[in-house]
């Protein structure tokens, strides 16, 4: 695919997200330009591109942290409680004195409120989420003592409890060991099987090609958007790399198919 026209992913499902001539940026300096397209409910979409391409900016726009400079984002009637977001670098203060159990339980806050009690059903759900990420026995461990992989497992367990229809992951597998990546990808596939919509910012093109059927290749504007094999074609990657170099992106973009 050499063009970046809008794509409808999936079959009969309705759009979960629609971008209409969307421009996002900071202090009127655009970082995402004139993005058009739709993401179908239940889609599994990778967002790729060089550094500074606007990938994290797009995520912040979707959750409402950034208001569009122009155009619009339509969220298919989603309530904010229906959107779960894991930011880049998991912006969590690891020095905060909180246990794995309590960190995971924070996934219930939007449903029960900050001071809502935890009932028997909630305790069961928390235990199941911790088990799902392979952290049984770590419940009382302070988060400051966790490895990077264990912390990311904890945050994925929190996402499980949010039970969201739209899940946004910003570089969720960076600097993780292969076993942790494999286990967390199992959760991503589980969400996809449950017809939840998952968008993930990723840099590992081999991982994207293996696990993500759709890809948006972004370099401030959409270079390609569609089936992953087509979106990550060599000519598209070369164009993204050249555009990144033109505005100072410093991350090399893979060219080989």
Structural write-up:
One of its GO terms (molecular function) is ATP hydrolysis activity. This is Zinc/manganese transport system ATP-binding protein. InterPro entries: AAA+_ATPase (IPR003593), ABC_transporter-like_ATP-bd (IPR003439), AztA-like (IPR047748), Metal_Ion_Import_ABC (IPR050153), P-loop_NTPase (IPR027417). The structure is a single chain. The chain has 2 domains: 1-78 and 165-257, Rossmann fold; 94-163, no CATH class. The chain starts with 14 loop residues before the first strand and ends in an 11-residue tail after the last helix. α4 (120-132) packs across α5 (148-162) and α5 runs parallel beside α6 (178-193). The chain is of the alpha/beta class and 257 residues long. It is globular, with a radius of gyration of 18 Å. β8 and β9 (221-227) form a beta hairpin. The strands form 2 sheets. A 6-stranded mixed sheet has the order 5-6-7-3-8-9, with helices on both faces. A 3-stranded antiparallel sheet has the order 2-1-4, covered by helices on one side. Helices cover 34% and strands 24% of the residues.
In terms of topology, how is this protein built?
Layout: E1 15-26, E2 29-40, E3 44-48, H1 55-63, E4 70-74, E5 83-86, H2 100-105, H3 109-112, H4 120-132, H5 148-162, E6 166-170, H6 178-193, E7 197-201, H7 205-211, E8 214-219, E9 221-227, H8 228-231, H9 234-246
Parallel strand pairs: 3-7, 3-8, 5-6, 6-7
Antiparallel strand pairs: 1-2, 1-4, 8-9
Helix pairs in contact: 4-5, 5-6
């Amino acid at each position: 695919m050499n063009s970046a026209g809008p794509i409808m992913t999936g079959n009969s499902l309705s759009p979960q997200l629609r971008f209409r001539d969307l421009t996002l940026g900071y202090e009127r300096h655009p970082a995402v330009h004139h993005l058009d397209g739709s993401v179908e409910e239940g889609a599994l979409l990778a967002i790729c591109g060089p550094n500074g391409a606007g990938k994290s900016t797009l995520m912040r726009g979707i959750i409402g942290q950034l208001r569009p400079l122009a155009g619009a984002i339509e969220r298919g009637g989603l309530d904010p409680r229906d959107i779960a977001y894991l930011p880049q670098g998991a912006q969590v203060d690891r020095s905060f004195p909180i246990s794995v159990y309590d960190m995971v339980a924070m996934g219930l806050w939007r449903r029960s409120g900050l001071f809502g009690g935890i009932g028997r059903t909630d305790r069961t759900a928390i235990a199941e989420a911790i088990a799902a990420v392979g952290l049984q026995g770590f419940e009382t461990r302070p988060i400051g003592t966790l490895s990077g992989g264990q912390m990311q497992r904890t945050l994925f367990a929190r996402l499980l409890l949010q039970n969201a229809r739209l899940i946004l992951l910003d570089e969720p597998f960076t600097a993780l060991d292969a076993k942790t990546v494999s286990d967390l990808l199992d959760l991503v596939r589980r969400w996809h099987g449950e017809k939840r919509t998952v968008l993930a910012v990723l840099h590992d093109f081999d991982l994207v090609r293996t696990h993500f059927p759709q890809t948006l290749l972004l370099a401030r504007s959409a270079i390609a958007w569609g089936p992953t094999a087509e979106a990550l074609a060599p000519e598209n990657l070369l164009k993204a790399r050249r555009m990144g170099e033109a505005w100072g992106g410093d991350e090399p973009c893979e060219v080989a198919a």
